[in-house]
Structures
1.
Amino acid sequence: MSHLPICGIVVYLTAAFLTPLLYKAHRRVAEGVFLASTLSNPVLQTLLILELSSNSWKPIVYTLGAAGPYEWTYPIRIVLEVDALSAFMALIVTSISAAVALFSIGYMEEDGLQKYYTLFLLLDAGMLGMVLTGDLFNLYVFLEITSISSYALVAFRKHQWEAVEAGMKYMIMGSLASTIILVSIALLYGEYGTLTMAQLGWQYRHHPTGMARVALAGLLAGFLMKGGIVPVHMWLADAHPAAPSTISALLSGLVIKVGIYSAARIAYSVFWMGTDVRLLGWLVVVVGAASIIVGNLLAGFQRDIKRLLAYSSIGQVGYVVTGLGIALIPGVNPEASRAALDGALFHLLNHAVLKAMLFLSVGAIVHSLGTRDIGYMGGIAKRMPLTSAVVLLGAMGIIGAPPLNGFVSKWMLYEATAIFNPIIGAIAVLGTAFSTVAYGRLFYALLGRESRLVADRSPRDPGLWMSVPMIFLAAASVLFGILPRIPVVGLVRPARAALLSPGSYTSWLKVAGGILSSPNLPPAGQPISVFGSWVPAVFLLVFAISIAFFLLIRNLSASGVRTVGEGVKAFLSGEDERDFEALQLPGTSVVWGFAEAVKSLVNALKREHSGDLTVYLFWLIFLYAVLILLWGGA
Amino acid sequence: MMVYLTAFALIMLGIAGMLFRRNLLKIIMALSVADSGAYLLLIAIGYRSGGTAPILTGYEGGPMVDPLPQALVLTAIVIGVCVLIMAVSLVVNVYRHYGTLDVSELRRLRG
Amino acid sequence: MNTIRSILAVSALLVILFTFILISFNPGYGLFSFGHPEEKSWRIALYKYYIENGANLSGGANIVTDIVFDLRGYDTLGEATVLFTAIAGALALLRRGGAK
Amino acid sequence: MISVAAQMVIQGIVLAGIFLTALYALLQKDLLASALMLAAMSLLMSLEFYLLQAPDVAIAEAAVGAGVSTLVLVLGIRKTGRWEE
């Protein structure tokens, strides 16, 4: 038996325990261990994927502490179960965190570094364990490792009130969600007497009971909260900006994805085949669509650049969840449901790459400027060309501009949602419009006229340690956009097939001696072409022409700065600006009309994000009760 | 039955306390009450009436209670304490910055 | 919290509590009855395996200890890691000084 | 061996005690008193665990719930304030 599944976790954990010890001896040694563990892990996960694919994507079941899971007819020990989806997630987690780790060597020049490295590695270990494990209680343990280290990392800059407040709110909400998850696990154990997820799925398929559905409601409410889905997303916009930028990249890029993964794993592999989940699927689609609207809309009205990115994360994760929800609903056009799932998983990968890249490069800007206000970032593109190019590339990717990876996955999701339901399709497109507004402001701000602060500080592009990961992520984003078939065929389709056939997740179980057959398998599905008429070369040409046009207009247009006026006001954030004189921006206000049009909606939403912790907790309980009513009681 | 009811009542009491109390330390205490409810629920699930503790020394046959939930609770108790430690160290920091533990004062981040 | 939200919160709590009471009392709903020696027909009696073979597998007379340290030893490792995380986190949060 | 009825009565008393101490802890304005009430609740919990044939958990709950938790909470209260406004 190959020991590959456990290796990654062991490497992270060993390094996490070693770093504080070595740091006392010599700082560089500790950093070496930190880098070695994070950089070697993607290799391990790639080997795992190769092993899986050479075995026609049959799940690898690894038992801890013994040769096989069976000493009886049921698995009695903790198992790690790696199927195509787990391996896909593991590769994302390890690769992105390798890039972030490389960046943080140059970025974190603060006190308490050895604790930073330790917590970073523990966060990685927790996430990797969550995606690889096949045992429900073990999932809870790893969830707690992930959560506790992320609470500590959010509040890591404890001398800032902002970090402490955000960490406190995140911690209380996250702990309540964890408690709900623990109660649900207890209910499931009481009902079926096992904790292995494959076994639970098999049991539920043959004996679906009301109590298991109540448990599912709790698990979903908890994991959706960890994934930052409307209406339990309020902690996210506080917590992600308050953390150091490297941690924001991990939180936005990976931690919420892992929450979504767990929800999907439980909904699909454990519960999907048991009963009709139409209502549940619709509920997931609705919260996903709400996330698209709320996240992307509020992103357009933030002055704080990291807060903008955090709200945009809510919106983009909404796309993923919408896709996952569509595939849950039975009776949808199978092509559409496959395309939705493909799009959702590919968007998950793309968003992880893009958001990590955005947070890292924005972090470099914020680090050198000392402010997070977009209004003061005018003209930084001239001073930090590389960083700004990466920021703008990431922004275009998130908007879904054609030659980049975000376009491909969003295109699949547009297709799928439009076939599924025109209203949801319209919401998907509307979300893109909103995010264009949000990131369009970024374009104007960065490329615009130089602000006084930028002139004073004269920031520079960061050094080699920080540039390499940014360039690496940007290259990945362009590569996935131009050659989408590589990740889609190699990683996403097997992962989709694994989700859509829960029978394969439980196929290794033996029940009463024989290998159990997997009933009601949906068709495994021939790969369909979901790219529409996507010819990268044409779009590249269009893109080059539009850049040429942009440069032409920019050079021909009248120069001059309009400092004060309605235009600047709406252009920045839609809020009343405090100090006009300090803002120096070209007054081309493209979003003024839009800001006026949606002002009442935005104000209502902003009132709801009142900062009151008990209100946030209320929404979690409310979601739980609604899930129970709609689904558990059925 | 009584044990289940008490467990669920403790969970609900904890959640209600988190929703309606305004002091942060009190909210954390409410969280630990809810956690205790979850532990009691797990142990109650494992109980078999007339069962003895799952220890083989001096065992004379007859039913035993389910040992697995007990193992889970042992793990969960430690995790609960870890959450408590983190929460209290965060609360100390909140007090340093805000001078109060009232959650309605703790809302500078919004919108 | 305002009044409407308080009412909603209380009703949400009541819904959850009612569901819990339902699942612990109503036999038709998929009940696990308290302390019932007989299992539901579909429930896996995994614990019987632990009771019969736990001592042979790991050699301890206390089956809970066997499970904690051997059969589910990985969870215990995770638990130790959580403890380590919490202590590292608390030390990071309570450290003196800090930049700026 | 105590009779089933007696055991029921004892359990009823212990469970009522758990619930009432938890309620009292959450309604109390004095944080120190509620921390001590939580410790009392933990002790009753460990008694209940013992009655439910879980001696290992009872020991752990008594040590961790009544000991470490209370210690951590009291340290937190010392660093902040004793009274809830």
2.
Amino acid sequence: MTVAVLSGFVLALAAPWLVRATGRAAGWVTALLPLALTVYFGSLLGQIGAGDALNVTHSWIPALGMQFSLYLDGLGLLFALLICGIGTLIFIYSGGYLPNDPHLGRFLSMLLLFMGAMLGLVLADNVIVLFVFWELTSISSYFLIGFQHSRPEARAAALQALLVTGVGGVALLLGVLLLGQVGGSLELSTLLGRGNEIRAHPLYLPILVLVLLGAFTKSAQVPFHFWLPAAMEAPTPVSAYLHSATMVKAGVYLLARMSPILGGTDPWVALVTTVGAVTMLAGGTLALLRTDLKQILAYTTVAALGTLTMLLGMGTADAARACMTFLLAHAFYKGALFLGAGSLEHGAGSRDVDHLGGLWRTMPLTTAAAGLAALALAGFGPVLSFIGKELLLEAVLAQSPTRALLAPAVLAGSALSVAAAAIVGLRPFAGTRPDELSDAQEAPASLWLGPVVLAAGGVVLGLRPEILAEPIVTASAASVLTRREVADLALWHGPNPALAFSGASLVLGLLVYRAWPTIRRSAAARTWWLSWGGPSRWYELGLQALSWLAESQTRLLQSGYLRLYLIMILITANGLAAYALLARVRWQPIVLQPAVQLHDAFIGALILLGALAAAGSASRLGAVAALGVVGAGISLVYISFGAPDLAMTQFLVEAFTVILLVLAFYHLPRFARLSGRTARLRDVVIAGVSGTLVAALVLLTTTARRDSRIAEYFAEHSVAAAHGRNIVNVILVDFRSLDTLGEITVLATAAIGVYVLLRLRPEKGSTP
Amino acid sequence: MRSLILRTAARLLLPLLLLFSVFLLIRGHNEPGGGFAAGLVASAAFALHAFAEGLPQTRRMIRVDPISLLGAGLLVTAAGGVAGVLAGQPFLTGQWVSLAPVGLGHVDIGTPVVFDVGVYLVVVGAVLTIIFTIMEEA
Amino acid sequence: MNLFLLGTLLVPLLTGIACLLAWRRRTTQRGLGLAGATAHFGATLGLLWTVASDGIQTAQIGAWPAPFGITIVADLFSAIMAVVAGMMGLAVTVYSLGSMDARREEYGYYPLFHVLLLGVSGAFLAGDIFNLYVWFEVMLIASFALLVLGGERAQIEGAIKYVTLNLISSAFFLTAVGILYGMTGTLNMADLARALSRTAAPGLVTTVGLLFLVAFGIKAATFPLFFWLPASYHTPPVATSAIFAGLLTKVGVYALIRVFTLLFVQDPGFIHTLILVIAGLTMATGVLGAVAQNEFRRILAFHIVSQIGYMIMGLGLFTPLGLAGSIFYITHHIIVKTNLFLISGIAYRLRGTYVLKDLGGLYRTQPALALLFLVPAFSLAGVPPLSGFAAKLSLVQAGLAGQQYAVVATALAVGLLTLFSMTKIWAEAFWKGDTGESAATPRPGSAAGVRPRGLTSMFMPVVVLAAVTVAIGLAAQPLFTLTWRAAEQLLDPTAYINAVLGSPR
Amino acid sequence: MPLLLAVVIGGLYATALYLILRRSIVKLLIGLALLTNAANLLIFTSAGLTRATAPIVPLGSDRPPAPFADPLAQAMILTAIVIGFGVLAFMVVLVHRAVQAVGTDDLDDLKATDT
């Protein structure tokens, strides 16, 4: 199983070379992998269908609770088969869809990466590993949507999908980590049995909301649905594979997976059912406002995802079975429709239903496939989706508390599907062929194979559900319900309320289809608010607000004014120090030893006056001279308190500093007074507070002071062990010679820096 | 700048200051002084000479490029430190020999003294590099 | 005496000296620089090996016993940092061989570079708070000189801010050291830890701790002290930007973690919570700054700020998992961020600009570069399973365990915004302009179709670093075990103190 | 005496920081120079003031007569002075070049490298 998950990634690395080696057959060759995987997972059907589950664990990052563990039960197997089975057809299709694209290798590589990630997602046992694959599907979706990257729309759509699902991803990560904390394990297989404790925990509601946010964004539920139609910028195989059959169902998978853990509570039922129902209706309605085939299909996908979500929200056994059946059916017919739309575009050069028509003659295979698939979309005929729809209706009608609300919604949703099915199934093919379509021709085998197989598959499964559908649906529904009830799937359930409902939706739907041109016209006038206040507009506003916030914050903080930076730093430091000194320090009487002598007072005054003069002087030389006075004053302090070395060095350094300053600024004019009164006052206050705080700190330190046994040690060993009587010098060259080594390195480097500054200039040549 | 008085003073002061700097360097281990202060005094001597006689003159007199003094000085200090390592002791461990030259009693020579000489060289090199470069700029 | 410990310091010192002695001999310096960087990396690897297997390594410089002389000491945290610094030193040296212009090489690029490495390594190994100050200054002065090397106006302007704010930081540092010494009479950090743990004036200790927080906060570029970084990092040649980006702020973070695990642990309820708040604000302001930028290196520079927030988040949480996450994050970040700068330099070499809208079309013409960009870019944003994910995950888990939901939410949201601005670079510089003329325009001054010189040695480190990023991401466990042990050493400093001072008598 | 020196140090910090906040880049420079001096004086004072002998061992003795001034603080300050000098020299030249490049002494003309 591990090999199965990882093989996609390995082949993804090799894909570009593979394409180079096999040329036009690349699609067929790469399809061998998903085919093999389909066979592999198919072979497990008996075992899993009987209720077994497989578990594999490899150690990965145990410190973070991450182990590479996989868990295959009915739900996982349903998805795995979908991913690999449809994947096989998609790879074949891609080879024919982009035969001469120089980037076919990258495309297939990304598609394989996606397939691997998706398989990992549905098979992961460890929730963090699940998240890892979840994110990888988002990333590969980003690159696939943006595949035609020279188009700005494609780039924007790619980013939009990434950000919307990214928000959900972040929420999901938080959610599952909290879940892991609450449930005491990060393994889904363990968590499945701890639903009761988790639902009783105070963190349950946050966890639920976070996980749902993840699922809803991924599965394009209202109000996050808008990224999905935009994602139709992707090449058609991607739309069929990621944005219809598999990736968008990851959210549904998550809901199904979490049902035993988080489901069944009032908030779950209320949130999931409502959001699902609303999405179903919104998707169905919006589909009718489009003429681009892929757009219509995208919105019907949104509607279908809403339906699935709603079913999972209900949480009954009927609903679970309906959900799984419908999910399987949808993958088949929607895949067929998308691929058919791609074939149409390939063969006829357009995807707009207003420009298409009468193509049944020239494109018979595509027509047949699309027709069958459209029937399935409508939910009628000998197809699996009919069974799904009947189950859906039964489930809705059976559940008493919400029936009053959901039944009309489902009726409307079904009717809208019928109308959409009529649009995509009839418009392009029936009627007369417009003249501009005279060049239309049937697509090559690689392009018709996919739609035909998928559409036919829906029929086969519908006629003989017991072969494949029943074991899968039974097993996967069992995963949702944590108990096993055999699903009895059949086309004909006899006359019952569901069938009546079905019939009603058919009639309603056909009525809507007849009125479609009128609806479009009047809707065009009434849905202006969608572009003005709809969710996709929120997204745009969000981005704008973000960049506004970013820019104004940056203008404010990174203003370019050095003194504002300094002010912010000083205010921070002042604030912190003042707080600590006032609130954290116990003040004690301060020892003022040794006492002040007259000449000390004189030196102190000299230093302060020098400093003030330096601050106030209007001439450079004056300020420099005042600086020298301060330095000299400090030398005097050093002399009075037993530091002759310091005094001498201080004096020499001060002299050199003054010389340097004079040399460098001799030619400059007097200072101009640049700051205004307020600014100066502000700076006086800030600097004054800093000075006061420093003074307080110094005083405090002198009280807290203890004698240094280090100094004592030096006094002891200076002569005896280090052969020197000037202890300060011995410290410098022996006890702490490493400091001195660093110090002269600084000095040497500073000299190089000065040299470089003055010698190496862009305007000067490179004369050394 | 190049007045006669300054030139005469510089000519007189140069040897005196250099001598004083060597004095400070040598006695630094036992009395106030040391490599840094000594280096500053020596630099002052050369700087004064450069002010008085002009930079080219001074450069010619010193002969070595101050920048190479930086490397040399650092090498001297580091080498003194590595000597300890070669003797199997930690980096910068002092290695001492006691000499008793006739008539001078007892003198200790050790790597810390060598270290101070390195400091001296670096200081002279650094200060002269800085001052000379600025003077050429002006 | 551990030769690797000493070598980590001595090799860059001696290389720097050798390069200085070979002043103006460019070819010699290139050879010396490469040899020195290789030897340094080797020494750091040896150091990490011995520390991991034999425990904390110390050396008493000058054979004076601690706390009287200066101790250099490497625990796991130091050793990990040293190894990453060594790796970056080597990577950027190789890159420089291809990218640095001859004039800058003649004017001391290599000696300055190795002095910088010396300062950084010294800071990681310092066991003495004043010695730490000295190494900080060594690192700073080398960075000053490197920053202005070339003397272009933008460099000078950036340097004014960089130098001023860093000098302010040094002044805070020196002030804090002075007060600390006044209170305790010692400078050895292990000795200080003992002294401070039985201090009679805890309030004063907290105050001094805050001074260190400001001093190192400036160096580490945390909120609201980071201004020097975005003002200057995009001005020097890219190799310089890259080594700065990789190492300088991280020395500040290192110092923060060191002093707030070893010295100032008396009042974690206040100081560490404060650090946590700063962490969140740093992440947010940094990433917003990046969102506002439109130039490759400026975006990257602001991201450094943002990422510093993550690095100190673990310190604020003050748990083994949090600190392990922080150290992991630092390691990952240094590799990834240096690499991103190196990649921006290749893009510059190919197109002659850093402005995103003028780059364009790199995806078509340079698919390899595109792939190499994606690895560190996604890793930076924390996309699994690259190194950034494991780093972020451990911090998030630690935050959740500590019930610090606000900072966790910030961390995750900022991750998303990081992804947003990485895709901005991707979309503008790589995806866009595929059909436009800009893609066909070669770099001004180079003939069409001719590969600009030096690309091979520029690509080499990029490839290696990207591979390391992937490796750390896929096989995070070994590194995580190491950082976990490092975190445990930090949280229980007894071993550190005993290694330096000897067991308590 | 600590009170007096504390006031002096506080005053030095205040004037230094005030100068650093000026728009004139040369004033900024002078402020930085003052700040280094102030920090050194702070170390000196915090380490304790001894109006007594320098830490030098008289000839013939093997330790200095107590009380002696703290030699470690002095060594620290010496190191700091030298470092401060080197850095300041660099800064002087940097400011010189900046003034040359911009043509004025006004920091507000130096904000092209920020956003």
